[in-house]
Prior knowledge:
Layout: E1 8-11, E2 15-21, E3 36-42, H1 44-55, E4 60-66, H2 69-81, E5 84-90, E6 94-101, E7 104-110, E8 129-132, H3 137-150, E9 153-158, H4 165-168, E10 174-178, H5 179-184, H6 190-200, E11 204-208, E12 214-218, E13 224-226, H7 242-256, H8 262-276, H9 289-303
Parallel strand pairs: 1-4, 1-8, 2-6, 4-5, 8-9, 9-10, 10-11
Antiparallel strand pairs: 2-3, 6-7, 11-12, 12-13
Helix pairs in contact: 1-7, 7-8, 8-9
Amino acid sequence: MERKPAQALFVGRTYFDVTFVTDHVPEGDEKAVAHDYAFSMGGNAVMAGLCCTKLGIPIDLLTTVAHDWLGQMSVQKFGDYGVQYFPRAVTRSAVSLIRSRHGQRAILRCRDEDFLEPYPNLEVSNYRIVHFDGHQPDAALHYAKLCREHGIVTSLDGGSLRENTEELLEHIDVAVVSERLCEQMGGQKPEEMLGYLRAKGCKVGAVTLGEGGVVWYSGDSGNRYLEAFAVPKEKVIDSNGAGDVFHGAYVFSWLRHREAMWESHFRFAAAAAAHAVQYLGNEAGLPLFSNVEALLRPRLAVANQ
């Protein structure tokens, strides 16, 4: 069966994540056994793209692939998900070691910063939206500018400050950033960051606050607040990757109902993220559409009373 052209392109870096649960991290000549662990695909834009695909809309990926056994595994994974990928060679696959504890995560990243080749030149005119995580700064800026020329919506996961984040934001339509970026940019408060995003020309801006919800705006609206979906503390297993799920889910929601208000897209994304934190490992937490619907149904019922 011929694959339909993808509606979205996700641009980022591929990781493999080893997530472990332990009360004690050994040092020196110690040894320890973790209570639990998960091995999974990782990378912000990669996981956001896989989330969108699992929810029901296939995507394309422009991502890093190394010529090593983890690189071979990533190619196999993309095939399993039905994702078309455009590789950019790196020397070694990137790996994250993640300690998940009490709903928080400590991350040690291992990666080569240098690319072995330029980013591939892709035709973007068939996409409706292109999402970036900033991990390929040169590719992100090139394709963000190209999308502007073609009237294609651009989306940014502003999880951390990167070498050209401020320039890139001038070409972004939907900027969803983290509290960490606020801190890295002079300790701005979320409301100040929204003002900054407006000044950059972002049509939609948001700051994610984890379990504190999301502050956001759309167009000329004032700043708004959307609360997070409550998850009992005993059910919060792993918060790593929840942000990636949030991004992938709002892209999916926008593609599915582009005429809908952004509040509904962010509410859908918040429900998807609430599902994700209840599972150990990125891939285990990727929701099906039915999982998100089940979380949304009670809230929509209350709203309609």
